[in-house]
Amino acid sequence: MFNVAFRILYNEDEAQDVLQESFISAFRNLENFKMDSTFGAWLKRIVVNNAINVLRKRKWDFEEIENHPELPESDTLFPEEDKMKVEIAKKAINQLPEGYRMVFSLYVMEGYDHKEIGEILGVSESTSKSQFNRSKKKLRQLIQEML
Amino acid sequence: MKKDQLENWFSNHRQAFDDKTPPEHAWSNISKSMGWSAEKRKFSYSNFMWKAAAIIFFGISCYLYGKSEMQALQISSDNEFQKIEAYYMDEIEDKTQLLIDFNGRDVFPNPETEMELQRMDAMYQIIKEEYSSKPSQKLKEALMLNLLIRDNMLNEEIETFSL
User: From B3, which residue of chain A is nearest by alpha-carbon distance?
Assistant: First the structure.
């Protein structure tokens, strides 16, 4: 759960606060757990929502693609397996604008679909999809620059 | 929707991104906020010794065996742990039902204790999930302690009820 919070906030102190707050909230509201998912999935949703609330206080926004030079569409920009390293990937994600990082993390790392991401972030499913595609383009660009 | 290379790479290396651990005091902060501190619970010397003994037993067993035997011990410890876990899960279920039957109203007699047992069960599930993906001695001991505490709480309830 700590990693879930950290991947959204990229700040250990804030992630720790969210972790504590989420556990306390879950234990105090156990009667609201409806058993329609696993307890872990329910708790994870609480962690994600609390992390997003912290981000909102930072006044994040989706960055417009127009602020960046035109990015190529092709997937062939992704490096070969032996050149791609975890540390490069972590640095690249850290450099993503917050909005992109959130959508990318929620979709690829936490396994939410775009409908769920839309509900979490208060955007439409199509916005989530478009932001996700943009996040991937930006991530490919950052990775290429780092290699 | 078909995943592209980038998505596939991140999905395949997902575990590498679970490298952070919360600081030691995170859980004690949660416990304090929930009022689970030791001072609030009635201190029982014999229970404390039993819990301490369970933890020390695991520690000493691992220390006494050499590295080459560690794997064998690990396998037997896991088997032993599963037997102990099954035993205490049955005990907890039986004692809970016993108290409900004693109470005669189809509900647990003490709502506060019931709530605390549910919270402990929830904690158990979380630790168990963590243990399934990243087994460790520390987590196994945490699971054991959770079971012992719950069993002890039910023993105290039964004692109170039967007075």
Answer: A108
